[in-house]
Amino acid sequence: MIAEGSTLLPPDLPGQVRWVTARSEDLRATDLPPLRLCTMGASFHWMDRDAVLAFLDTVVEPGGGIALLSGSASIFSRSDGLEGAWLEVTREVVTEFLGPRRRAGSGTYSHPKRSHEQVLASSAFGAVEAHRFTTTRPLSVDAVIGQQLSTSYASPTQLGDRLPDFRRELARRLEAIVPPGASPRWSTPT
């Protein structure tokens, strides 16, 4: 992500951008300057959210804030606007290859008991505004497979030596649900 962000950084961008690679627990050691805005991608649920917010309260300037951003919904999120046969097929294949419990790193994923909104409300960043920007993008068979391989629950590391079989089986099953004569394209909100 840092390499991608670095290539997209406009040369005439006002202010300064400093890229930092660190675990949230190690941010204190990175000597961060005062921040006007701290953004986090689809990562907040992996952190000790209360501790991170307490630390950010010491470095985010008065009047500044944080933004939690997320992209595509997970195949396991049934309330994020995802729908269609491609979703069910993808969920079935991931489950067949990796089991019914959602994987994450070397273990399994358990959804946090408190929502992000609840955690934020009990922090110095309690004035929460939620905005949902929905666009629909078409997905090909290759895009669906690539999307799954970019996740923590179906990464190449999770699949190990079953990766080629996973790719083949997911492609086969997705192609089987494409109407005759049509190109394999589905949509997902982001």
Written account of the structure:
With 190 residues, this protein is of the alpha+beta class. Helices cover 34% and strands 14% of the residues. The chain contains seven helices and six strands; from the N terminus they run H-E-H-E-H-E-E-H-E-H-H-H-E. It has helices at residues 2-8, 49-59, 85-98, 116-121, 141-149, 156-159, 163-176, and strands at 35-40, 60-68, 103-104, 107-108, 136-139, 186-189. The strands form three sheets. Strands 1-2 form a two-stranded parallel ribbon. Strands 3-4 form a two-stranded antiparallel sheet.
Task: Describe the SSE topology.
Elements: H1 2-8, E1 35-40, H2 49-59, E2 60-68, H3 85-98, E3 103-104, E4 107-108, H4 116-121, E5 136-139, H5 141-149, H6 156-159, H7 163-176, E6 186-189
Parallel strand pairs: 1-2
Antiparallel strand pairs: 3-4, 5-6
Helix pairs in contact: 3-7
- H and E string: HEHEHEEHEHHHE
Query: How much is the radius of gyration in Å?
Result: 19 Å
Number of beta strands: 6
Biggest β-sheet description: 2 strands, parallel
What is the mean pLDDT? 81
Instruction: Give the number of helices.
Output: 7
Uncertain runs with pLDDT below 50, 5 residues or more? none
The helix-and-strand class reads alpha+beta
> What is the end-to-end distance?
18 Å
Strand order of the largest sheet: 1-2
Shape: elongated
Level of helix content? 25-40%
Beta percentage is 5-15%
